[in-house]
Specification:
- This protein is mainly α and about 325 residues long.
- The protein folds into two domains: about 90 residues; about 180 residues, no CATH class.
- The chain contains 13 helices and no strands.
- The longest helix has 28 residues.
- The radius of gyration is 24 Å and the shape is globular.
Length: about 325
């Protein structure tokens, strides 16, 4: 009974935080509620037994995304932007209609889940095919073997998103960071960064037989890179090449082509070496995800239009 009461409390907290996040008139309050909502959702995934998704939600959905929102809010305040969230431009009728539709959908889905018997055929098919997938974790088997095309497209979408942000050239931090004299930040980086590197590698390796994998490891490594850049900017002072962001996508596509040549079918790994193929793809994907998330914080700024206008001229004074 206590477990059901705990689940009811979590569900109510989720709804309350979502409403506060949407209807708060202060941007900083909405961001705070959003971060808290992500942590509650991660707890929900944990209660459902989806530990892989819970780790990704806590690290990316709440941690990285929350940090991006906080830094963006600070940058808007520093620039004294006219963009505000204090005006509610959505009419009450639209809000009421949307709320009514959401309630109907929630009650309909709840009725279906309560009065219908779960179909375990799909779970049986996954469990019976684990021996051929190369891994023991059913989540990894589905993402990297049985439905690997979905994961390939997800990596591609992440790359396109980072490339779009990269093309804008607006960095959340000043690109020419000066070495900080913050003793606490330096000390924290010496302890946390090595631990993040080891934990990310462990999460990547353990994903073959228990919760973990590329997305979780990539998020942890991205956090280590961001902290290292803040504490020791000179270590990562060089500009991040956009080609480094394609490591995971290139390896994934190369694996698809190689498996087609071998088995005449895309991403159909040889049964004896399926585990090694998946580990190679996940390692490259984790590196790519870490660099993608890191690039969202530290993006080289575009060349100033005035400096770009100073083109090289010849002796006659004409532009080359």
């Amino acid at each position: 009974m206590m477990f059901y009461l705990f689940d009811i409390i979590i569900a109510l907290m989720t709804i309350i935080l979502a409403c506060l996040c949407l209807f708060s008139r202060q941007a900083i309050n909405s961001i705070t509620y959003f971060i808290a909502l992500g942590l509650i959702v991660a707890l929900i995934w944990t209660r459902l037994g989806a530990y892989d998704v819970a780790i990704a939600e806590a690290a990316i959905g709440s941690g990285v995304t929350g940090a991006l929102l906080l830094f963006s809010w600070r940058k808007l305040r520093a620039a004294k932007s006219n963009i505000t969230l204090t005006e509610n431009t959505i009419s009450k009728k639209v809000i009421a209609t949307a709320f009514f539709i959401v309630v109907i959908i929630v009650f309909s889905l709840s009725s279906i889940l309560l009065f219908s018997k779960p179909n375990s055929a799909l779970a049986y098919l996954v469990d019976s095919s684990l021996s051929d997938s190369g891994v023991l974790n059913p989540v990894t088997a589905v993402l990297l073997n049985f439905r690997s095309f979905d994961t390939l497209l997800e990596i591609g979408v992440l790359f396109l998103a980072a490339l779009g942000v990269y093309s804008i050239g607006i960095s959340l931090f000043d690109y020419e960071l000066k070495p900080s004299s913050n003793f606490l930040l330096h000390s924290l980086s010496k302890l946390v960064v090595p631990a993040c590197v080891l934990f990310g590698g462990y999460t990547l390796w353990v994903g073959s037989y228990s919760p973990g994998g590329a997305f979780q490891a990539g998020a942890v490594w991205a956090g280590a890179l961001i902290l290292l850049r803040l504490a020791h900017p000179r270590l990562l002072a060089r500009k991040l090449s956009p080609w480094l962001l394609t490591i995971g996508l290139i390896v994934f596509i190369a694996a698809a082509i190689a498996t087609f040549v071998i088995n005449k079918n895309f991403l159909l790994y040889p049964a004896l070496y399926a585990g090694k193929w998946i580990l190679l793809i996940e390692t490259a994907a984790a590196i790519s995800i870490a660099l993608l998330l890191y690039s969202l914080f530290f993006i080289p700024k575009k060349i100033n239009s005035k400096s770009a206008a100073n083109t090289i001229t010849d002796d006659a004074g004409e532009s080359i």
